[in-house]
Every structure is written in structure tokens, then in C-alpha cells.
């Protein structure tokens, strides 16, 4: 038992380091690595198959509270967060992220896992070939930004991510340069994580199949193990984002999404 717990701690700590680096580099909150690795870890720990995917997503999005805060703070120091664009989007995120969590737990786990795999593959292709999600520059208004935030929060909460795959191209379409889009996206990851986590905790209330040390669909040992190390790693990821060229960042993001997609199809 002690050996199993030690293995868990090592896995969660290593996962936190990688998630933190990715959060800082790409503004993605780390969820696109946390979810797949947690699914594999929870399978190996013998958790009930029916709740593994939802538990992985709920736990991943709770971890993003900490990785998101650390990453956002690192980008704030770099002055790469556009708070004028962030504020109205964050209002929409509050409602979207909470509703997305309540919606996600009603979806079959296998369907949800395959949906994530397909989504990640599509995003990888879009990034690799630099396909523009928005064909023209968007002229933002407060209602448009709130609506965009609601959609970003809803989809991100279902997928267990910090929303960077949606918010980075959105902020780019507003005319922000890539580093500012990543920084503002990282800030958006915080309300996504906070209100998404609230939804998964409420949705998992009184679910008997959940393992001990769970708070709704949040597995607390993973939450703390991942979060502690990710906080320290996020600032180094942000440093890399400002050091690497935009072309290199784009290729690294695409490669990462292809790896994750293949893994999600196979696990």
C-alpha cells in the first residue's frame, strides 16, 4: 500500500512539473496533459471504469486553479496580459464553465474520452498548418466578448482544459500578438478552473463509485500532488514562451497535441 502511495506521489509530482511548463509556454492550463495521464493512472489504481474519465477531467480542471494562477502571474510580470480584453470574457467564462461541468457528467465516459481525442487531433492540425480559426479581425464589443467567454468556458470545462486552445486564437483575432494572446489566455484559465471545479464537485456529490479522498469528481491526492510542483514549473514555461520564436512555439504545440490525441485513442 505504501509502495502504491509512493508511486502515486511520484507520478502526480512529475505530471505537475510537465503541466506547469506547458501552462506557462502555451497558456493551455496543462489540462491536455493532466487528463490523459490521470485516466491511465486511475485505470492502474483500479478505480471504477464508469467514473474514471469524469474524475480525471474534474481533477484536471481543479489543478488548473493553481497552474493557472502561477502561469497568469508569470505573464502578468511580463506585462503580457491585456486586462481590457480579459475582463468581459471572464464574465462569460463564469457561467459557461459551471454549466459545462454539469453537462459533462451526463455524457458517457468513453464518448467523452474519444471526443477529447478527436478535438485534440483537430486542434493539432489547425496549429500545424496555421489554419486561421477566424478569417478576419473581430471588432470586440462587451456582449460579443461575454458570449465568447461563455462558449470558451463551457467547452473548456467539458474537456478539462484551461481554454487556451480556444482563447488563444480568439485573442489573436482581436489583434493581440501571440505572447499577449497566450498571457491573456492564461489569465482566463483561472475562472475556468474555479467555476468548472465547483461544477464537478457539485455534480459528484453522493456518487458512491468515487474513491476515498474524492471531493465530488475531484481526487484530492492528485490535486495536491500535481499542483504543488506545477506552481514552480509554470514560471519557467512562461520564460520559454518569451524566449522561443513564434514559429517554434506553434510547431511544439502541434506536436504535443498529436501525441496526446494518439494516446487518448489507445488508452
Helix content: over 70%
Sheet of most strands: 2 strands, antiparallel
Q: Strand percentage, roughly?
A: under 5%
Which term fits the overall shape?
Answer: globular
Number of domains: 1
Pick out the low-confidence regions: none
Major sheet: order of its strands? 1-2
Q: Distance N terminus to C terminus?
A: 25 Å
Query: Which structural class matches the secondary elements?
Result: mainly alpha
Quaternary organisation = single chain
One letter per element, helices H and strands E, the order comes to: HHHHHHHHEEHH
Number of strands: 2
Give the radius of gyration: 17 Å
Question: Quick check: average pLDDT?
Answer: 85
Q: Tally the helices.
A: 10
Short structural summary:
The chain is 78% helix and 1% strand.
Notable features of this structure?
10 helices; 267 residues; 78% helix; mainly alpha
Account of the 3D structure:
This protein has 267 residues and is mainly α. The protein has one domain. Helix content is 78%, strand content 1%. The protein is built from ten helices and two strands. The chain has helices at residues 2-26, 31-44, 49-77, 83-104, 109-128, 142-159, 164-173, 178-203, 220-243, 246-266; strands at 214-215, 218-219. A two-stranded antiparallel ribbon has the order 1-2. Helix 1 (2-26) packs parallel to helix 9 (220-243), helix 3 packs parallel to helix 5 and helix 3 (49-77) packs antiparallel against helix 8 (178-203). The protein is globular and about 50 Å long. The model has no long low-confidence stretch (mean pLDDT 85).
Amino acid at each position: 500500500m505504501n509502495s502504491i502511495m509512493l508511486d502515486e506521489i511520484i507520478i502526480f509530482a512529475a505530471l505537475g512539473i510537465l503541466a506547469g511548463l506547458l501552462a506557462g509556454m502555451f497558456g493551455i492550463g496543462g489540462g491536455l496533459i493532466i487528463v490523459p495521464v490521470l485516466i491511465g493512472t486511475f485505470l492502474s489504481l483500479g478505480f471504477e471504469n464508469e467514473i474514471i474519465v469524469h474524475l480525471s477531467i474534474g481533477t484536471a480542471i481543479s489543478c488548473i486553479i493553481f497552474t493557472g494562477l502561477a502561469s497568469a502571474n508569470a505573464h502578468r510580470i511580463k506585462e503580457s496580459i491585456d486586462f481590457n480584453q480579459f475582463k468581459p470574457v471572464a464574465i462569460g467564462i463564469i457561467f459557461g464553465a459551471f454549466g459545462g461541468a454539469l453537462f459533462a457528467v451526463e455524457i458517457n465516459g468513453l464518448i467523452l474520452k474519444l471526443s477529447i481525442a478527436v478535438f485534440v487531433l483537430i486542434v493539432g492540425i489547425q496549429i500545424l498548418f496555421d489554419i486561421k480559426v477566424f478569417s478576419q479581425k473581430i471588432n470586440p464589443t462587451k456582449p460579443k466578448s461575454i458570449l465568447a467567454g461563455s462558449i470558451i468556458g463551457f467547452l473548456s470545462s467539458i474537456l478539462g482544459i484551461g481554454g487556451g486552445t480556444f482563447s488563444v486564437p480568439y485573442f489573436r483575432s482581436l489583434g493581440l500578438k501571440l505572447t499577449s494572446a497566450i498571457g491573456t489566455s492564461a489569465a482566463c484559465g483561472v475562472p475556468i478552473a474555479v467555476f468548472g471545479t465547483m461544477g464537478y464537485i457539485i455534480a459528484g456529490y453522493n456518487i458512491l463509485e468515487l474513491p476515498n479522498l474524492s471531493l465530488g469528481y475531484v481526487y484530492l491526492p492528485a490535486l495536491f500532488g500535481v499542483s504543488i510542483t506545477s506552481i514552480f514549473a509554470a514560471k519557467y514555461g512562461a520564460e520559454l514562451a518569451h524566449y522561443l520564436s513564434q514559429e517554434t512555439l506553434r510547431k511544439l504545440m502541434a506536436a504535443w497535441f498529436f501525441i496526446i490525441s494518439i494516446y487518448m485513442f489507445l488508452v
